[in-house]
Design goal:
about 220 residues
Length: about 220
Amino acid sequence: MIKGIIFDLDGTLIDSMNVWYDTDRAFLKENGVENPPEDISDRVKKLTIDKASELFIQEFGLECTVEYVINRIEEIVRYEYFHNIPLKSGVAETLDFLDGINIPYGVATVTYRSLAEASLKRLGIYGRMKFLITSAEFPQGKKNPDMYLKCAEIMGLLPENVLVVEDSLHCIETAVKAGFMTAGVCDVLSVGDRAEIQKISDYYFDTLDKLTSIF
């Protein structure tokens, strides 16, 4: 029985994945990488901000610090999070439904806390979240289940009573191994993993409002 929900942010609640695709390339090009690999965004989305920054430096021989990479990328994406990135289709209706049946929910994300808070506040849903957990608290990110386990602890629930909603295959794999129920949500940048996500998830939705059908 689902008693609480953990939502991913990027690609699940907000339509931001293309922003990161563009940002990765913009950062690398301004640092002398003329033709960034096509798969670079897919690779770094599985990493925490620190690890992604280390990968950029090591793989492309950048002469800068991890701190510089972290800060510069945040600068590039900040405007989009503060002003432009919209909710994904069906999010508002889904949250209204969950509030109506008293199901607690919150966000677990590897995105910068400042950006996550800014976008959620601008979109009017920050105050509805029971928690916002980021890789600032859990630097291993979502390859380790501790972030999800902390969210369940905040809600006072066992993993088997919590639904983790994600658009990325590696995140769903982590949640499944930790004993959570899982739901995959379609996003343009994860469509290549759709078949595998559907295979291992308890549920799969093209849009988030379809989640209401499982209650």
